[in-house]
Design a protein that fits this description.
Radius of gyration: 30 Å
Structural class: alpha+beta
Largest sheet: 4 strands, antiparallel
Number of domains: 2
Strand content: 5-15%
Helix content: over 70%
Mean pLDDT: 78
Oligomer: single chain
Distance between the termini: 24 Å
Low-confidence stretches: none
Number of strands: 4
Length: 300
């Protein structure tokens, strides 16, 4: 297609939006409302998924070394662990550092344990292990329990399994809800756009009777559907982007990240994800709604 012809189709699409302003407004409104709901739910689900990943990645395996193990035997144990599958990192924590961490975690109740510093330390040395896949922590912990010079292995047994189960259920429910909401939005938006095309079926029939090809008739509606979807996506994108930025700044300002141990998706990153998703969905639905409506009137 020539650039000149494409420009003509673009001008016709814009003129059509103006001539049928009320129907265009109805279509854009339908896209706006539907994508506003999709955008809000998508924002929540993306953050919940991010928090779930953070919680999963915080799972670690603590391997307490037998107190009788000498440095050479500790090194041999470390090499054994490194040879296992799914090992991401191994950190050696001597008992002196372990006592400091324990005292810090106890807060105001640590006075009794502070007196132990510089004296006989009852805590053992340990390895802190992270796996490439958090769900493999359970398997890795059970394997390490069988190794020599391992006094005890802790990974939150009983709680970690429940955590992974709850996270999986939440993700599956989120996926189902997102797909259901998207399907409903597609149906609503596409049918609203179809009404704008059906109202102009006589115009399409006249163009066909005058010898216009299917492609010549279809292109202005293709561009019009794209513009309707695009315009309808811009408003919810701006509303959600501005609102999310304010919520994110408030969350950071209240310092919730420090004691809730979770981080929201940064506002700039969310704006990028959200803008791309909503504009793409809106444009595709607009095009699809226009094309499916025009097709039935091209068979003359």
């Amino acid at each position: 297609m020539r650039l000149r012809t494409l420009g003509r189709h673009g001008r016709e699409a814009i003129k059509s939006l103006g001539r049928n302003s009320w129907m265009s407004f109805a279509s854009i409104s339908a896209v706006t409302v539907a994508l506003l709901l999709v955008g809000l739910f998508l924002t929540v689900m993306l953050n919940l998924n991010t928090i779930a990943n953070q919680v999963e990645n915080s799972v670690e395996v603590d391997v307490f070394i037998d107190r009788t193990a000498k440095p050479a035997q500790q090194d041999a144990l470390k090499q054994q662990i490194e040879q296992l599958d799914h090992i991401k990192s191994i950190q050696y924590v001597p008992k002196e550092e372990g006592l400091k961490e324990f005292i810090k975690s106890m807060g105001d109740d640590a006075d009794v344990f502070k007196s132990m510093q510089g004296k006989e330390n009852p805590l053992p040395d340990k390895f802190v292990i992270k796996t490439t896949d958090p769900k493999q922590s359970i398997t890795v912990a059970k394997q390490i329990e069988q190794f020599k010079y391992v006094d005890e292995v802790r990974y939150g047994k009983g709680y970690v399994e429940k955590l992974f189960h709850v996270v999986d259920i939440a993700r599956n429910i989120g996926i189902v809800l997102i797909l259901g909401l998207l399907f409903t939005s597609v149906f609503l938006i596409a049918n609203t756009i179809k009404l704008t095309i059906v109202a102009r079926r006589n115009e399409i029939e006249i163009m066909k009777l005058c010898g216009a090809t299917n492609a010549f008739v279809r292109w202005p509606y293709f561009i019009e559907g794209f513009l309707l979807g695009l315009l309808g996506a811009v408003i919810p994108f701006l509303l959600i982007a501005v609102g999310y930025r304010e919520i994110y700044q408030w969350f950071i300002g209240k310092n919730y990240q420090s004691y809730l141990f979770v981080k929201l998706i940064p506002s700039d990153t969310m704006t990028l994800y959200l803008g791309g998703s909503l504009i793409l969905i809106g444009a595709l639905i607009g095009i699809w709604g226009s094309m499916t409506s025009v097709r039935k009137f091209l068979k003359i």
